[in-house]
Write a structure and sequence with these properties.
alpha/beta, globular, about 300 residues, about 5% strand
C-alpha cells in the first residue's frame, strides 16, 4: 500500500466521517422506537417500572407502538412424566408412516442412519397431533440405533419440535424487527383478546396455541403468522379475527398460488404495480437435480410432494 493509501486509512476525509456519523444516526433514529419498547417491557417485567410506558419517540415517528410483554412460553428443560407422556408409554409409527420411515432411511448409508433423526421426529410429531411425547423420541432412537439422549438433544435444540401438547391450530407469530415495526404486537394483542389467552398458552377448548417466534422469512409481507404449516401474511386486526373464526369452523382460507396467502388480496410479494421482475419462465432442473419435478409441481401442493 502506498503512502497515500495509508494516510487515507489513518486520516479519513471529513466527508467520510460525516457520512458515517449521518448513517449511524439515521439507523439509530429509525430503530429507536422499537428498541425503547423492548427495553421498557424488559424493565417492567423485572419490576423496574410500575407499568409499561409508550415511548414518545414512537408516536412522533408513526411506528406501531402497541404495549408489549415478555414471552410467557418457557419450555421445560427436562422431561417430567405425566399422563400421556411417560417413559413407560408405548408408541409406534403407523403402517403408513413406516413406509415413510423406510423412505427416509433409504436416503442415507446404513452406518449413517442417525442422519434421519430430524425428518423422523417431524413425522412422529405430525402423527401425534403436533407434539412429541418422550416415547416417540425413544422409538426414533431405537430405529436409527442411537441412545435416546442423542434424540433428546435434537428435539430440545430445534424449536420446530414441541415437547408439550399444542392446540389443533398452532399459531406462530413472527415478532422479529420487520414484523414488529409493521404491527406484529397489535396482531398479537388481537389474538390474545379474541381467544382469551396469553402468548405461550393454549385456549380452553384446545383449538389454539399461540407462541411468538423469531423470523419466519416472510419479511416483505409483514406482519404474518405461521398457522400449522401455512403462512398467512399482510395481516390486520380485522383479517386476523376473520382467520381465527374460519379456523374455529374448521375451514381456514386456502393457500394461494405460491403456497402462502397474503390476507390483503395481493399475489405473493407483488406490490401495487404487479410483477415487475423475474418475468421469464423458471429454469428447468439441471445437473444433480430431480428430473421428475420438471414443471409438474404446483407450489400450492408442495406439501404433498414432500410426503407430508
Amino acid at each position: 500500500m502506498d503512502r497515500q493509501g495509508k494516510d487515507l486509512l489513518l486520516f479519513p476525509s471529513p466527508f467520510l466521517l460525516a457520512w458515517l456519523s449521518f448513517s449511524s444516526g439515521l439507523t439509530l433514529v429509525i430503530m429507536l422506537p422499537a428498541v425503547l419498547r423492548r427495553l421498557g417491557r424488559s424493565a417492567a417485567a423485572g419490576g423496574l417500572l410500575e407499568k409499561s410506558t409508550r415511548p414518545a419517540a414512537a408516536a412522533a415517528t408513526g411506528f406501531h407502538s402497541s404495549p408489549a410483554v415478555l414471552t410467557n412460553y418457557h419450555p421445560t428443560a427436562q422431561h417430567k412424566d405425566e399422563a400421556g407422556n411417560s417413559v413407560k408409554d408405548a408408541w409406534d409409527f403407523t403402517d403408513e408412516n413406516y413406509k415413510r420411515v423406510n423412505m427416509i432411511l433409504a436416503r442415507y448409508p446404513a452406518n449413517y442412519k442417525a442422519a434421519g433423526i430430524i425428518p423422523m421426529l417431524d413425522l412422529a410429531q405430525r402423527q401425534n397431533g403436533g407434539w412429541l411425547p418422550v416415547a416417540a423420541m425413544d422409538k426414533v432412537a431405537s430405529i436409527v440405533g442411537v441412545v435416546p439422549m442423542r434424540v433428546y438433544e435434537v428435539a430440545t435444540f430445534y424449536t420446530m419440535f414441541n415437547r408439550e401438547k399444542v392446540g389443533k391450530w398452532f399459531i406462530q407469530l413472527c415478532g422479529t424487527t420487520p414484523c414488529m415495526v409493521n404491527g406484529a404486537e397489535e396482531i398479537r394483542a388481537t389474538i390474545e383478546k379474541h381467544l382469551g389467552i396469553k402468548e405461550g398458552e393454549t385456549s380452553k377448548d384446545g383449538l389454539f396455541t399461540l407462541r411468538e417466534v423469531e423470523c419466519l422469512g416472510s419479511c416483505a409481507n409483514a406482519p404474518m403468522i405461521q398457522l400449522n404449516d401455512d403462512y398467512y401474511e399482510c395481516l390486520t386486526p380485522a383479517t386476523t379475527i376473520e382467520l381465527l373464526e374460519a379456523c374455529k369452523k374448521g375451514n381456514p382460507p386456502k393457500m394461494g398460488r405460491w403456497g402462502s396467502l397474503p390476507m390483503n388480496g395481493q399475489v405473493s410479494c407483488e406490490g401495487p404495480h404487479g410483477k415487475t421482475s423475474l418475468k421469464e419462465p423458471a429454469p428447468t432442473p439441471g445437473f444433480m437435480m430431480r428430473t421428475d419435478l420438471d414443471g409438474k409441481v404446483d407450489p400450492a401442493t408442495v406439501k404433498k410432494e414432500m410426503h407430508y
